[in-house]
Write a structure and sequence with these properties.
Elements (H helix, E strand, L loop, with lengths): L8 H14 L7 H9 L1 H13 L11 E3 L16 E2 L7 H4 L3 E3 L3 E4 L9 E2 H11 L2 E2 L2 H9 L18 E10 L5 E9 L2 E8 L3 E2 L5 E4 L2
Antiparallel strand pairs: 1-3, 2-7, 4-11, 5-10, 6-11, 7-8, 8-9
Helix pairs in contact: 2-3
Length: 213
């Protein structure tokens, strides 16, 4: 059961006052200060994560993350008049996840021996047949909004190419009715996201993030 959070603004102000009076800013490198000043949103997310962990430093990468299902994913995150394809049922097994062990996620290309690529629609069919749990867009959103949670190994290239990690548990429709899925990628020294048309060709560096069932 989750613990109650701060709702009293006076209590929040007291918290910030205590931190301001007790943090040894003389120990904080100038490079860190510059990063915080230039990346206030991500810095705030990381500090929030620190406080949620009991204001303790956790050594190593987080393994289990929380997926907040109280607010559904808004497809207009991508653009106006985008929507979720209701004719293509989301993977309900993924939608039921409120805790996710990042070490359990596997990357699946669904390529068969001798294939260098397949189209996206065929890939979706093979994923369904495999019975793997296709991770949905709320999990994508959680990682995008908390980039410090994304495992380091996800930055690795595939055959020298940027790896695009797809969340096929939810299919989106653009205003013209074309079917897309969202992905994360480490490119140019930072995390980025994209949306890809299912009629495109999908290669070895286009894996889907799944849980084995």
């Amino acid at each position: 059961m989750s613990q109650p959070c701060i709702t009293d603004p006076n209590r929040a102000s007291r918290l910030m006052g205590v931190l301001n009076n007790n943090v040894d800013f003389g120990q904080v490198p100038d490079t860190t200060v510059d990063w915080v000043l230039h990346n206030p949103v991500e810095a705030g997310q990381q500090f929030t994560a620190f406080l949620k962990k009991g204001a303790r430093v956790i050594v190593g990468e987080p393994k289990v993350i929380t997926i907040d299902r109280s607010t559904p994913f808004n497809p207009e995150f991508v653009g106006q008049r985008w929507k979720i394809d209701t004719d293509e049922q989301e993977d309900t097994r993924s939608l039921g996840l409120t805790q996710l062990d990042l070490t359990a996620i596997r990357f699946k290309t669904m390529l068969k021996d001798g294939e260098s690529f397949i189209d996206g629609e065929e890939k979706i069919k093979r994923l369904k047949t495999s019975k793997n749990i296709r991770l949905d867009v709320k999990i994508f959103q959680t990682l995008w909004e908390n980039k410090h949670l994304i495992p380091e190994r996800w930055k690795e290239k595939t055959n020298g190419n940027t790896t695009y990690i797809y969340f096929d548990g939810t299919i989106l429709l653009n205003p013209d009715g074309d079917r897309y899925v969202l992905c994360l990628c480490w490119d140019g020294g930072e995390w980025d996201w994209d949306y890809i048309w299912l009629d495109n060709a999908w290669f070895a560096n286009d894996p889907s993030a799944v849980l084995e069932s």
